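Handout, page 2. Input:
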Amino acid sequence: MTEQQEQPEIRPETESAEPAPAENNLLAELEAARRQSEEYLAVLQRLQADFINYRKRVEQEFDELARATRARVIQRFLPILDDFERALRHRPTNGVEANWAEGIALIYRKLWQVLEAEGLKKIEPVGGKFDPWEHEAVASEETDAAEEGEILEVLRPGYKLDHRVIRPAQVKVARRPAGASGAEPAPGL
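Output:
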């Protein structure tokens, strides 16, 4: 070939309104990959949220189990507290026995401090109104000196642990004498 012979001129293809078939395939693959990555991201976000919820639920269940276990252990000490309180109500105040009784009182105070540090609180119902969530009425007494449902005496102390009743107080409750309620019974009853 000689230089004078002209070579066909190579011109770049002009851009058409529609991409070539190879470009169409690449764009379709790209769109499919984008949709798939969005699906994977959505699945991952759901899994992450599920895991966070699972972790919170497990932590909450663990805390509840720890509280329940602590309450069961403390409940086992409550009869011992009752025994200490009964013994201390009748302790001697004179002589050698008084020294020994003071040692028992010291042990009781230390035990109570430990249980109180764990969140134990005594329910103090005397003079208050009967509350079935905190009290167990085991006796009643007719009296005009107190209102109906007023607590007259604590027969066995009740306790709360972290604002939950773990043992209701057994109490004696006031009731009005028959016919003193102010309301007359319906005729025929």
